[in-house]
Structure formats: structure tokens, C-alpha cells
Amino acid sequence: MKIKYLLLIPCLLFVSQAAFSQNTFDIIFNANDRDQECKACIHSFRQKPKEVRYSIKRENDDLYFEINDKNWFNSVFKNAGDGLAVDVVSKDRYACQVQSIDNYQIKGLLLEPVYAEALKGGLTINTENIFRVKVGKIPKKLLKHDLEYNILFLGNKNLCRYYVTYDLDYYSWDLLDMGMYLDFLTYGTKQIRASAKEGYAIRNKTLKFVIPFKKNKASYSQADIKPIYDSLRITDFDIKSLNIKAYSSIEGISKRNVELQEQRANSIVAALQTFQKPTIKTVVSASENWVEFFNDIDRTPYENLKTLTKNDVRKKIAGTVSREMEYLLKNHRKAVVELELEKKEKNIGKSANTLLTEFNRAITENKIDKAKTIQNSIFEKIKSNETTPAILQKMDIPKQAKYAKLINKNAAYKYMLNERQALVVYNELLDLEKLAPNDKEIKYNIAAIEIILWRHKAIDIDESELVKNINALKKHGIHRSLISRMMVNFHIVIAEKLMKNRDFDNKDKSVDYVNKRYKKFPLSDYDYLSLAQFFSIYGNSNLAVKLLERKARTIDIDEDLLFYYLNLTLIDESLTNDPNYRTIMLNAINMNKTRFCKLFNAVENGGVTFQLLDNEYLRNTYCENCND
Predict the structure, then answer these.
(1) Which ranges in 50-144 belong to alpha helices (H)?
(2) Cα–Cα distance, 311 to 330 (Å, whole number)
(3) Signal peptide position in this chain (predicted)?
(4) Which residues contact 132 (CB under 8 A, 6 or more apart)?
(5) Which of 155, 158, 118 has its CA nearest to residue 40?
(6) How far is CA 79 from CA 41, 67, 118, 132, in A?
(7) Is residue 448 classed as helix, strand or coil in its secondary structure?
């Protein structure tokens, strides 16, 4: 299920050094009795419901404190000396030409504090039940700057809490994708970002492979590509789209490296296009393979290069050293090629209504194989929006065992087009099972939908019976990796239920089961996301990071998944200070430099926060790659 969440997450900072060259008004910093003076404030934060959200919002040059819970607001600002102040921070503080950043407790320009009486007296509510109160005005000298607004919470005029606000994008998540059996196990297209376009479509068959490049070779012929084409066994398919990410080794001139890779990638496209008439939609990108370079020099005599800038690395390996490193560099020249295949259409030019007539006639004449071919053509018409799913109801299939596979495909396809049909399809499949009690594909589809319905409380089930039915799929010929995937989903649902019941010990057992078993089957990028979210939500963020860390250092990771990993880790200095983290950031820069650099924009401009640049490690990477 896709839900868009966007939350401003406050991060508490304490800095022991307090040196100010500006007016700090009557705020008391680092008093000896701070713990006692801040006792009530700290207690309010400990009792804060997780649903409480607050932030500083700007309107022209006015700043407002906004909050969605008046009761908690009143508990924080109870006494005369309780209040808040705003620290207006400019991105200029982090300019790349600045040699070092001052480690002061106040980062920008401190505005005059506002205390309880004024806060409560000025509080208003809008139509969305958000409470707000004006807390300051931006000085004219800062109006044209990129700004962020940190919050000082005061108790008896003492600084009790200092918050930097991070704007972290939230991502949708779900169970691991189990797919549905049509002619073969088929999956739907699921977007990783919650902000992505809503909808659910059936995926075409996809294949991914790697083509190595020889040094200085830029062209590929039919003879080069034909063995690859033949090995894919796609004689019954056309290539619908082609996504090529071409990588050069890092020695040499950067611009020339990228140009060479683009030539190689386009040469592959041209060679593949000669094998079919339909035009292949292509997306080609090219970059230098810094990711695998830094991965491969780990624990070698060249390991010291990991700490250098990219320009300094080029200088160090120029000439003799690059020839010595050729045993590593030759593995970095490659193209990661992803093919989207679609079944060759055998009924080109026929309308959906014509196909429907021919399908029903084939059923009447008991020509089941012909009916299967036409059924697939009708599915393609639905996928291409040439007809609507309503046509499935007009396909006249008798409820007889010999037509079970046709009925199963129609039901499964209906569910994949609209998950809201899950309960209807589930009941249809249960009836179908009576006609074909040993059909493995029907049994698999029933179990997959049953887990989903159970998760969303649409049906009541006997948990032990469900486990028994899942394991019984093995004797019907379902591969054990698919059964393991179902059992992981079972324990994800169980963990959710145990968490709500506050049965933490048994919840941890289910989490442990998931952690041990997910390695037994391949994961899609959406699966990686779902597992990472599952581990994070249920108190095991370390498992989420461990799950994604190695994949985040691979060049074929999905872009959205890589940026989810950054979303998960950017504010954790224990992770970002690891030398391997630079490799992950360079991977993101290679994939989408603009998107990476935007993370360090002001919150108002769509960034996480430019105050991440307080971290020297992040700042060095940012300044090396984003300071154009």
C-alpha cells in the first residue's frame, strides 16, 4: 500500500562550547543548575506523543511556530520563563571556500526569545487544525540568503533543547512481492518513492546482464551481439525498451571517458536493433566507474587512494601506476544492460472486440491453445489502454476443469490490475480450486492473496493452517525459494500484530526469523526497500543498514533505493564517517548528481538540510562534486 508521509524530524544537539559575538538576550547557556531548571521541559519532551509535529514556517519575512497539538504546546510553555527562540542560519556559513566552520552553539543570527504569555496569547488555529504563533522576523540583511530556522526551547530562560530540523522523504513499503501465476510467475510494477505516480501495472519480462568493454574499443557489430541475443532465448519476444548504463575506468580525461562510453552504449543499441523491426526505446547514460574502483582497491597497495579527491587520484595513477593497476581497471569498463521484453503480438491490428469474439468462438470449439493465445492478446490490449478491464467479464469461460488455467489467469490478472479486487478474486480462486484441486498455480495464487488479505484484516485465518498450506506448496511443485518468501511475509505480518500487542519478545523472534531467511531467495529493489523499512520500524535500524550497505555500493542498484539508503543514513555520523560511505555517495552522484546535490539545499528549497555540511566528511564530498 502506498501512503505519502512527509515529516520534519527534529534532531537534538548539545555543544559544550559557547562563544558568542552577538546579542543572546536573557537566555542562560550551560548553567550549573540547568538540569534542575530544565526538568519540566525535558519531562514534556519525554512524554511527547509521536504524532506531535512542529516546525518553523516562513511567510515573507515573518516566522511562525506551527504545531498540531495544543495540549502538548501548553505543557511545554507552562511557566513565565518557558519559551522559544529562533536561530536563523544562512547557507553562506558552509560555503566551500570557507576553510573551517565555527563550532559555536548558535550557528546563525539569534532572534529575541518569545515567552509563554506571548506564545499562548498569540496562538491561532487554521482550517487544517494547525496551531501557529508568530515568533520573529527575518532581518533585512538575510532576506535574499538561503536560510533555515533552528529552535531553542527554553525552560526558566535556560537553553534546554536545541533542534535542527531535517526534512526526510518517507517511502512506501509493503510485503515482499509474491507475484501471481499467469502463464508464468508475473509481477507488478511497484514504485519505491511514495511521491511517485500512483497506480499498479503488470511488468513485462525483464532481463539484466553485463557487457564488458575492451580497452579503446568503441563499436559493436551484429557478430558481437548475436551470441548474447541468442543466449537470451527471446525468439518469442521483442525488446520493448533498453536501459544501458555504461561505465569507463577512471584513468584518463573525464570528458573523453564519458564520450567513449556513450559511443559504446549507442553501438550496442544499434546492433540489437538489427534483430527486430519494432523500434527499441532506449535510455543511455555514461559515467566513470569510481564506485567499483574504490571497492576494488580496498586491502590492496593502492588503498591509500581512497582518501584523495578524484583529481588527485588521477594524478597519482597517471602513467606507470595505471598500467600496474590494469588488472583492476579492466573490470571497470562495462555496460549494465536491462532489457524489457514483450511477447511478440500474434494478433496485430485486431480490435479488442474482434479478439473477444474470436476468444469466445475458440472456447465454443474447444480450441484451448488458441484461446490462450487470444487471451494474452486481450491482456496486451488492456495494458496498452486499448480496452478496459471490463472486457474480462465478457470472456465466456465455462467453469470446467479443462478451462481452469484460463479462469486462473483471468482472475489473477484482474487482481494485479486492481488490488482492491483481492477479496473477490480470492473467493473466485477458492471456487476454482474445487475444479482443479492439484493445480499448483491456483494454490500458489490463493496463498499469496490470503497473506495479503490477512495482513489487511480483510479475512480471519487460522495461522497454523496458513503455515501448513504454505509449506504444502512444495509437494505441488512450487520452488522452495517462493515458499521461503511467503514464510518471510507471514512473519512480517506476525511481527506487526505482536508489536501492536506489545509482545516485544515474540516480535523479536519473528524479526530474527525474517533476518535469517531473506538470504534464501533473490530480492527485487522493492523487496530490499520493504525489508529495510520493516527492520527500521521494528527497532532494528542496524539490520536495515546492514541489508542495504553492500547493495548501495553496487553500480546496478535502483536509483530510488540508493537514495532511500542515503535517506536512512545521512544524519547518522557513525555511518557517514566510514570511508566506505564516500563510495556510496559517489554512486549516487554518478546516477543523479542533481538529486544528490539537492539533498544539501535548504529545507525550503527541497533539501534535507544544508546543515548536514557541519559534517566535514559530507562537506568534502559536496564541495568536490556540487560546487559548480
Answers:
(1) 70-76, 116-121
(2) 20
(3) 1-21
(4) 57, 64, 65, 66, 67, 123, 124, 125, 126
(5) 155
(6) 10, 19, 12, 19
(7) helix
Cell of residue 167, nine digits: 526534512
**Residue 30 Rama label (left phi>0; alpha psi -120 to 50; beta):** left
* Tens-digit pLDDT profile for residues 163-217: 998 887 766 678 999 999 998 888 876 655 544 444 445 556 777 878 888 877 7
* E strands in 479-526: none
- In the chain, % helix, strand, coil (3-state, to 5) comes to 50, 20, 35
Q: Which residues pair with 10 in a beta bridge?
A: 165
Q: Which three cell numbers mark 347? A: 494478433
CA distance 192 to 188: 13
Q: Comparing C-alpha atoms, which of 173, 183, 176, 174 is closest to residue 413?
A: 183
Q: Give the Cβ contact number of residue 605 at 10 Å.
A: 13
- How many angstroms separate the CA atoms of 476 and 432, rounded? 16
Task: Give the pLDDT confidence of 285-337 residue by residue, as tens digits.
Answer: 888 899 999 999 999 999 999 888 888 999 999 889 999 999 999 999 988 88
SS3 308: coil
Q: Which residue has the cell 559548480?
A: 628
CB atoms within 10 A of CB 356: 20
Q: Are 161 and 152 in contact (CB under 8 A)?
A: yes
In DSSP terms, 212 is beta-bridged to 334
Instruction: Quickly list DSSP for 360-420.
Output: HHHHHTT-HHHHHHHHHHHHHHHHTTSS-GGGGGG----SSGGGHHHHHHHHHHHHHH-GG
pLDDT tens by residue, 601-622: 999 898 999 999 999 889 999 9
Question: Which residue, 230, 286, 289, 294, is CA-closest to 263?
Answer: 286
**532-550 in b/e burial notation, b at 16+ Cβ within 10 A?**
bbbbbebebeebbbebbbe
Q: CB 272: neighbour CB atoms within 10 A?
A: 22
DSSP string, 170-209: PB---SPP--EESSSEE-EE--SBTTSPP--EEPPEEEEE
Cell of 314: 588521477
